[in-house]
Design a protein that fits this description.
- The termini are close together.
- A hairpin with a 2-residue loop joins strand 2 and strand 3.
- The protein is built from one helix and five strands.
- A five-stranded antiparallel β-sheet has the order 4-3-2-1-5, covered by helices on one side.
- Helix content is 27%, strand content 43%.
- The radius of gyration is 12 Å and the shape is globular.
- The protein has one domain.
- The protein is an alpha+beta fold.
């Protein structure tokens, strides 16, 4: 079974970038990338899912994509990651 996550940039400052992530814009969790350290946090899971389900179905992929964007210093307005 393949998985797909979409990310939408919701705000950006000199210190961090915030993305909404999930299956569609109506059902998203929140992800924050700290630019200077490369630390990616997922403070809010996708609604309607337990934190564990959100992590398995969407968060794990969203974090991998965020880490790649940080390494490349390229914070797109929209991004996707799939297995």
């Amino acid at each position: 079974m393949g998985r797909l996550v979409k990310l939408w940039k919701s705000q950006e400052t000199d210190e961090s970038v915030e993305y909404r992530y999930g299956p569609d814009r109506d059902s998203t969790g929140r992800l924050v990338i700290t630019k200077h350290t490369g630390i990616v946090t997922l403070p809010d899971p996708v609604p309607g899912m337990s934190p564990q389900e959100s992590w398995f179905f969407y968060g794990m992929l969203a974090k991998a994509k965020a880490e790649k964007m940080c390494r490349e210093d390229d914070y797109a307005d929209e991004a996707t990651m799939a297995t």
